[in-house]
Design brief:
Blueprint: E1 7-12, E2 21-22, H1 39-49, E3 53-61, H2 71-84, E4 89-93, H3 101-111, E5 116-119, E6 127-128, H4 133-149, E7 155-160, H5 168-176, E8 184-189, H6 205-222, E9 228-229, H7 231-239, E10 256-259, E11 264-266, H8 269-272, E12 282-283, H9 289-293, H10 296-302, H11 310-313, H12 318-321, H13 326-331, H14 343-359, H15 363-368, H16 373-380
Parallel strand pairs: 1-3, 1-10, 3-4, 4-5, 5-7, 7-8, 8-9
Antiparallel strand pairs: 2-6, 10-11, 11-12
Helix pairs in contact: 1-2, 2-3, 6-14, 7-14
The structure holds iron/sulfur cluster (2 copies).
One iron/sulfur cluster (SF4) binds at residues 311-312, 315, 317-318, 321, 323-324, 340, 343, 346-347.
């Protein structure tokens, strides 16, 4: 029987241990570290969670480095999850350094449906393996090649600063050179959490917006076989294809949950990375899900759906942006109902996307999603000039 509970995504961290050491790690082992979960730990947490999860909810394995749990652990953990809730899906965010075809290919394909995201920064300075950035790159590149050969198309996430943002285009070149075997990309701004706490803004919103537009223009003109997040998700929102997608949702409160290795629960792993007790809902070992969701801070996160800044409500992009991410508002000192720090970037990019839809420049990109560009234009209506 379908249930009416709404947790759609659980970001589960079975360990904070990691085989790499990145200077800017947002979720370092020293924060909320705990022994790796046993299978019984997972079963305990899952038994408490599942009655409140949507039937098709997603569990995103995260860490630390989640592959350190071993392939067999995931076989058993996913099998248990599905035995209780057959519709749930699994995904993993991993540095892939431990990937080996013989051990992992089947798990990635059968348990996670190939849904894997990983991280790589083309400056090749801040990610280290055994103290060496070049060794990290060497192993990562080898593992990525093996995964591509095995037929996976992982999403490769890079985090960029004012100094490195130009390198985002080199990742586009690298993926484009692979033709039909290209991997997906995600271009993120580096943010001051975890080991980078207190560093403030590292990429200016205007720089980020400009680079995203430069990449968007190339992407819609070449329409390669890969997608680039956040541009793909933003285009989907403009086309009316996606509704509840992080970070373009003000409804994540009560629908997402981040579960730390020690059982601590936050709205999402991004909130956990703040390392701020004020945003902790409680602990799943000691409390039930309804108790956690009734915590004062949990109630406050659910208020974001109404409590967005006034100028967001009248913004020309409110339907798509929804006021941005509240974790970012908190991170940059604006509080749970405050302004999203990268508002300016989103405004610039949504303006450009809508303009390209109206002008017809995005037609081929729209058709790739199986939609008729004329219908998308009609849906969008007359788009006012950027203010
Ligand atoms: S707070 Fe931000 S990062 Fe966390 S789930 Fe909501 S939109 Fe996503
Ligand atoms: S673009 Fe900026 S003003 Fe508009 S809804 Fe998003 S955060 Fe608010």
């Amino acid at each position: 029987m379908a249930n009416s509970f709404g947790i759609s995504t659980v970001i589960a961290k079975p360990t904070k241990f990691c085989n790499a050491s990145c200077t800017y790690c947002s979720a370092p082992p020293e924060v909320n570290g705990a022994p790796k979960w046993s299978l019984d730990d997972w079963k305990f947490y899952f038994d408490r969670l599942h009655p409140y999860m949507a039937d098709q909810a997603m569990i995103l394995w995260h860490g630390g480095e989640p592959m350190l749990m071993g392939a067999d652990w995931y076989r058993k953990a996913c099998a248990y999850g599905r035995s209780v809730k057959p519709g749930i899906v699994f995904s993993m965010q991993t540095n892939i350094l431990a990937y080996e075809t013989g051990r992992w290919k089947d798990v990635f394909a059968e348990e996670f449906g190939g849904s894997i995201s990983t991280s790589f920064d083309p400056d090749e300075i801040h990610r280290e393996f055994k103290g060496s950035a070049s060794l990290y790159s060497k192993i990562f590149n080898k593992r990525l090649d093996a995964m591509l050969k095995d037929g996976f198309r992982p999403k490769v996430i890079g985090t960029y600063t004012e100094e490195t943002i130009d390198l985002a285009m080199t990742m586009y070149d690298r993926s484009a050179a692979l033709g039909d075997s290209a991997f997906d990309l995600r271009i993120n701004y580096r943010y001051p959490a975890g080991r980078d706490s207190g560093r403030g803004e590292m990429l200016m919103p205007v720089t980020y917006g400009r680079k995203l537009i430069e990449i968007y223009d190339r992407w819609i003109s070449e329409t390669p076989s890969f997608v680039i997040t956040p541009l793909d998700e933003m285009l989907k929102k403009v086309m009316g294809l996606e509704a509840m997608r992080c970070p373009w949702t003000r409804h994540c409160g009560g629908q997402f949950l981040g579960l730390e290795p020690n059982g601590d629960v936050y709205n999402c792993s991004e909130f956990a990375d703040l390392g701020d007790e004020d945003y902790r809902f409680g602990n799943l070992r000691e409390q039930t899900v309804p108790q956690l969701l009734m915590a004062k801070v949990a109630v406050a996160t659910r208020r974001r759906r109404f409590d967005v800044p006034e100028d967001c409500k009248s913004c020309r992009h409110f339907a798509e942006c929804e006021g941005g991410c509240m974790r970012d508002a908190v991170l940059y000192g604006k509080g749970l109902g405050g302004k999203f720090h990268y508002c300016q970037s989103w405004k610039m990019v949504f303006d450009r996307i809508k303009q390209s839809v109206v002008s017809g420049e995005a037609d081929r990109a729209i058709e790739k999603y199986g939609l008729d560009p004329d219908n998308v234009r009609k849906r969008l209506g007359p788009f006012p000039a950027a203010a």
